[in-house]
Amino acid sequence: MYAVKPWVLAVAVVAALGAVILLASFLAPGPAEPVGPPSPVVSTQPPTVSTAEPEPVSASSATESPTQPSEPPAASADVVPTIATDGYIAPAEYAHMTAAGEFEIHWQNDRTTIRVGLVSPGTGYVAIGFDPEQMMQGANYIMGAVRHDGAVIRDDYGNSQFGHAADVTLGGTQDIIAYGGREERGHTTFEFVMPLSTGDAMDKELVPGFTYRVIIAYHMTDDSFSRKHSRRGSGEIRLDRAP
Fold first, then answer.
1. Tens digit of pLDDT for each residue in 182-231?
2. Is 61 exposed, middle or buried (0-12, 13-18, 19+ CB in 10 A)?
3. Cα pseudo-dihedral 174, 152, 232, 207, rounded to 10
4. Which positions ≥6 away from 102 have C-beta within 8 Å?
């Protein structure tokens, strides 16, 4: 039998012990690492922005706007005035005015009618003739007066150079739409409305936008249409173009 030398056995024992020690160093737990606060988590996504509409405010907490009436209110007198043919001419009542001596002619027109206001310095009748051909011939002649029983008017036609007669006596018609007058402080104011075109052969058609010669006459004291005038004159008026 082969005998193991003592020194060889000693070396083997030492090697075995070294291996045991080395193995133990690998298996022993190391010192614990200090525990710090957790690192913050940083989001890499952009923040989400809400796009929701704000909640509607209830009617009880909101300031309410005034509600519209179901029907428009009636027009007040200073918005849409009612123009009365009453013998009183208010400032700016008529669009135009011209004077023949002390006699004033006020007028305005639309597409179908003309309103006329005459003011004389007397208390007798007033008269105006539209578009005469020669002297009084061919004129559409309107005469008005303020008598004790009220205003009167007559629609005449110039049937000669120096005379005129009522349309109704010449086969025509009286075509005045409205009229009125008054006497005040020795002056007479007379207003009337008539069509621009009546279809009556005893009337002259008046066309918006055209200029017409007019003749005027008045009596200082007498209301009778058969009396000769105290004063007379002539002038021109231009009608507004139709709107």
1. 999 999 999 999 999 999 999 999 999 999 999 999 999 999 999 999 99
2. exposed
3. -40
4. 120, 121
The one-character DSSP state at 52 is: P
Q: Which domains does the chain have, with CATH numbers?
A: 96-238 (2.60.40.1190)
CA dist., res. 26 & res. 149, Å (int): 143
Question: Smallest Cα–Cα separation from 125: which of 45, 238, 32, 216?
Answer: 216
What does DSSP say about strands 113-120 and 103-109: parallel, antiparallel, or unpaired? antiparallel
Could you list the beta-strand ranges (E) of the chain.
Answer: 96-100, 103-109, 113-120, 126-130, 140-147, 150-157, 165-166, 178-184, 187-195, 211-218, 231-238
Quote the tokens at residue 17: 């012990």
| pTM > 0.70: yes or no | no
Question: Where does the chain have alpha helices with state H?
Answer: 6-27
Per-position DSSP letters for 55-91, written without gaps between them:
PPPPTTTS-PPPPPPSSPPPPPTTTS-----SS---T
131 vs 207: CA distance, rounded Å:
11
